UniProtKB/TrEMBL annotation:
One of its GO terms (cellular component) is cytoplasm. CDD domains: KPHMT-like. This is 3-methyl-2-oxobutanoate hydroxymethyltransferase. Pfam families: Pantoate_transf. Keywords: Cytoplasm, Magnesium, Metal-binding, Methyltransferase, Pantothenate biosynthesis, Transferase. Catalyzes the reversible reaction in which hydroxymethyl group from 5,10-methylenetetrahydrofolate is transferred onto alpha-ketoisovalerate to form ketopantoate. Homodecamer; pentamer of dimers. Its EC number is 2.1.2.11. GO terms for biological process: methylation; pantothenate biosynthetic process.
Length: 254
């Protein structure tokens, strides 16, 4: 099966997933050896400028999935099912098929939706689960699973997703020890974002990893570059070269 190799990494080798929203970034990521590319509905915030993911549509997601799929020739592309696309099994299946047609190899679904997930898997569509903080429906972004009741609910749902046959589960913004319990309790890989070091893998929004937004500084994000500063410096250098008449020079002219 397509994701057997990914499942085999559980407990042995950490899994790496990053988001991408366009052809150029997907083409770069495709050469890095990471495991998965997620076309996340986070594009609503980092690409479209919305305050959250609640306004992202299927049309938006399919457009960006097609672009990413053109650039990713090796790494599997996962399409993030946006809000209001899983109202019932029939609608969810139709939307999931649209992602596959656009070039995705699987879809991610937020929340515990057994009937939906069962329907998709029965129709040979690989599903990635997503528990903990659910941005599509959460009124605010905050740590989830702090109380015993919340923790037991999330753990139970993770076990349920495992039995349904998801190929992995994203755990977002939950306590480290809860993520550890879940990871040890399910047979499929867990991929954390703000869920500590015990998950089988990690995912970040590529814009956050690269330091594209100087104002966005959640605790779980580590910047591995400061691309915002690099871009601004490059633009200033270009502007100065143009104004001084240094660009274009003979080498860059026909």
């Amino acid at each position: 099966m397509l994701f057997d190799e990914l499942k085999a990494k559980k407990g042995k080798e950490k899994i790496v997933m990053l988001t991408a929203y366009d052809y150029q970034m997907a083409k770069i990521l495709d050469k890095t050896g990471i495991d998965l590319i997620l076309v996340g509905d986070s594009l609503g915030m980092v690409v479209m400028g919305y305050p959250n993911t609640k306004k992202v549509t299927m049309r938006d997601m399919i457009y960006h999935t097609r672009a990413v799929a053109r650039g990713a020739k090796i790494i599997p592309v996962i399409g993030d099912m946006p809000i209001n696309t899983c109202k019932n099994p029939k609608i969810a299946l139709s939307n999931a098929k649209a992602f596959i047609k656009a070039g995705a190899t699987g879809v991610k679904i937020e929340g515990y939706l057994p009937a939906i997930i069962k329907k998709l898997i029965a129709n040979s569509i690989p599903v990635m689960g997503h528990l903990g903080l659910l941005p599509q429906t959460a009124p605010t972004y905050h740590l989830v699973g702090k109380t015993k009741k919340e923790a037991e609910r999330i753990l139970s749902q993770a076990k349920g997703l495992d039995k349904l046959g998801v190929f992995s589960i994203v755990l977002e913004c939950i306590p480290t020890q809860l993520a550890k319990r879940i990871t040890e309790s399910v047979s499929v890989p867990t991929i954390g974002i703000g869920a500590g070091k015990y998950c089988d893998g990690q995912v970040l929004v590529i814009n956050d990893l690269l330091g594209m937004d100087e104002e966005f500084k959640p605790k779980f994000v580590k910047r591995f570059a400061n691309l915002s500063a690099i871009i601004k410096r490059a633009v200033v250098n270009f502007s100065e070269a143009v104004k001084k008449g240094d660009f274009p020079d003979e080498r860059h002219s026909y």
